[in-house]
Write a sequence for this structure.
């Protein structure tokens, strides 16, 4: 959440590592999440990363996170 707030304020230097580590931490603890939060929160974190990189003019990094989003959808669906 802090990464998203910093990103909205255009503090990209501090926002980027918080957005990335926030997602990674959520993914590591995925099995501990309450059922109704699982995919929704991970997808939200990934979408924040995608939006961040698109707004920063880094389409290659945005594409990497879009790929991760696709992988997540496939893993959780199966």
């Amino acid at each position: 959440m802090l990464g998203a707030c910093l990103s909205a304020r255009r503090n990209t230097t501090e926002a980027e590592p918080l957005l990335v580590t926030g997602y990674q931490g959520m993914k590591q603890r995925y099995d501990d999440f309450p059922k109704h939060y699982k995919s929704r929160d991970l997808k939200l974190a990934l979408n924040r990363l995608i939006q961040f990189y698109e707004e920063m003019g880094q389409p290659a990094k945005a594409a990497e996170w879009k790929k991760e989003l696709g992988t997540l959808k496939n893993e959780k669906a199966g």
Notes: Helices lie at 2-8, 12-28, 38-55, 59-77.
